[in-house]
Amino acid sequence: MEIKNLSQTPFNIIVDCFFSAFENYFVEFPKDKFLFKNRWEMASINYSFSYGMFNRDKLVGFVLHGIENRESYLTAFNLATGVIPEYRGKKIIQQIYEYALDELKAIGVTKCKLEVIKENKTAIEVYKKIGYNIIKSYKCFGGNIEILCEVPFELKKIKFQDFNFEDKTAQSLYSWENQIATLKRGDFKCYQVLHDNNIESIFIINDQNGYLAQFDVLIESKNAWKRLFSAIHSISKEIKINNIDARLITKICQIYKFGLNNTVDQYEMEMLLD
């Protein structure tokens, strides 16, 4: 078997291997190739520094990397790792990383990051052996927003460049795919919720599928969270939220308060490169 970067591998071969590797996974992925093409491109995938294990011409395992400067580090974010079922148990991911790390270091990457479902204990142990450490816990949610008592709100749609997210919101608390650097490349809309002529809260959502990528109360006041969730509800009643930092107790309590359910929990893992 041979390890090669994926720069010359057709997208359809990569995504078909991805679907095969994630059959019967902890969560069900949609079988929409276009969705994953867009999602990986949003997250700054670099196929020249993403790698596959090949048995002759057959792709049997992979590590996909998004590479970008984030928080003063040139970071390789693991967008997806997988091995098709019949090739598991052969330490393919460890071998890919042994091959990849020298190349990543050579282009100046100083940090590697990934997310893994907490129940996936086998993967977590593999990542620890490679050199990753758990640094964050995330909670994911989904369902229909429940507004028991309507409150008035003023909603204003804005462009990404109209608001200084880096200064006004804690981007480091958001995961890679939910940070502004990723979202501005996707089909997301930004909204401000105004109260007493002030920007009380803000949220970013894909209004086609209800994916709520960011939401923050900027001015704590009575009914601020209710106005925020009422505004979100006006855009999409059913929503999905990935990767709320488990330390954000107030935000998590409000998510539960408005009727959403915890669907899965994840770890963020990190490895610093010398």
From TrEMBL:
Q: Which domain of life is it from?
A: Bacteria
- Organism (species): Flaviramulus multivorans
Membrane-spanning residues: none
Q: Identify the residues that the record assigns to the N-acetyltransferase domain, covering every copy.
A: 1-154
Which Pfam families does this chain map to?
Answer: Acetyltransf_1 (PF00583)
User: What is the designated name of this protein?
Assistant: GNAT family N-acetyltransferase
User: What SUPFAM superfamilies does UniProt report for this protein, alphabetically?
Assistant: Acyl-CoA N-acyltransferases (Nat) (SSF55729)
